[in-house]
């Protein structure tokens, strides 16, 4: 059965793990990410006539997620209500405290990136989207993608190095 013979909602359901992973990278909060995926899936289903069969469905929905997140950030800025993620202190005292601390350090460093850098990191490094597809999702030239990714990696490495020095 070809991808076009599979109903759209079935194809979207198969993408849910990837959509959640990308949304978690972008939103940096489990609940916000789940809301973002729900919004994106709803928009995709309501606007299914805008998707062209034969094109990559994942890229189309990643773009919807990106745009929905931009809308949410703008809305929050207007409300001036940004909160720290609740799960930041979830596993204090666990046996896996060191690994958890490293994960928190990475999450904190990623959260300090600009939205453009965090989105590029999410698409290319976390989700493994090819550069060509990431360019289509973000609607930017290839050179812009590669320079954003290089800068994002550099900033991320610097932030993680600073955190490591502050802990030592």
TrEMBL record:
<feature type="domain" description="RNA polymerase sigma-70 region 2">
    <location>
        <begin position="13"/>
        <end position="78"/>
    </location>
</feature>
<dbReference type="Pfam" id="PF08281">
    <property type="entry name" value="Sigma70_r4_2"/>
</dbReference>
<dbReference type="InterPro" id="IPR013249">
    <property type="entry name" value="RNA_pol_sigma70_r4_t2"/>
</dbReference>
<keyword id="KW-0805">Transcription regulation</keyword>
<protein>
    <submittedName>
        <fullName>RNA polymerase sigma factor</fullName>
    </submittedName>
</protein>
<feature type="domain" description="RNA polymerase sigma factor 70 region 4 type 2">
    <location>
        <begin position="104"/>
        <end position="154"/>
    </location>
</feature>
<dbReference type="InterPro" id="IPR013325">
    <property type="entry name" value="RNA_pol_sigma_r2"/>
</dbReference>
<dbReference type="InterPro" id="IPR013324">
    <property type="entry name" value="RNA_pol_sigma_r3/r4-like"/>
</dbReference>
<dbReference type="GO" id="GO:0006352">
    <property type="term" value="P:DNA-templated transcription initiation"/>
</dbReference>
<dbReference type="InterPro" id="IPR036388">
    <property type="entry name" value="WH-like_DNA-bd_sf"/>
</dbReference>
<dbReference type="InterPro" id="IPR007627">
    <property type="entry name" value="RNA_pol_sigma70_r2"/>
</dbReference>
<dbReference type="InterPro" id="IPR039425">
    <property type="entry name" value="RNA_pol_sigma-70-like"/>
</dbReference>
<dbReference type="Pfam" id="PF04542">
    <property type="entry name" value="Sigma70_r2"/>
</dbReference>
<dbReference type="InterPro" id="IPR014284">
    <property type="entry name" value="RNA_pol_sigma-70_dom"/>
</dbReference>
<keyword id="KW-0731">Sigma factor</keyword>
<dbReference type="GO" id="GO:0016987">
    <property type="term" value="F:sigma factor activity"/>
</dbReference>
<comment type="similarity">
    <text>Belongs to the sigma-70 factor family. ECF subfamily.</text>
</comment>
<keyword id="KW-0804">Transcription</keyword>
<dbReference type="GO" id="GO:0003677">
    <property type="term" value="F:DNA binding"/>
</dbReference>
């Amino acid at each position: 059965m070809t991808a076009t013979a599979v109903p759209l909602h079935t194809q979207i359901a198969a993408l849910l793990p990837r959509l959640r992973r990308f949304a978690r990278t972008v939103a940096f909060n489990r609940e916000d990410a789940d809301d973002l995926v729900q919004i994106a899936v709803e928009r995709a289903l309501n606007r299914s006539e805008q998707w062209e069969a034969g094109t990559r469905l994942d890229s189309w929905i990643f773009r919807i997620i990106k745009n929905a997140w931009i809308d949410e950030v703008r809305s929050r800025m207007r409300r001036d209500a940004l909160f720290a993620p609740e799960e930041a202190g979830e596993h204090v005292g666990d046996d896996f405290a060191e690994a958890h601390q490293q994960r928190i350090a990475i999450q904190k460093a990623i959260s300090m990136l600009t939205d453009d850098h965090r989105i590029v990191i999410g698409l290319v490094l976390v989700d493994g989207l090819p550069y060509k597809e990431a360019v289509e999702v973000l609607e930017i030239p290839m050179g812009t993608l590669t320079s954003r990714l290089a800068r994002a990696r550099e900033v991320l490495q610097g932030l993680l190095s600073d955190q490591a020095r502050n802990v030592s």
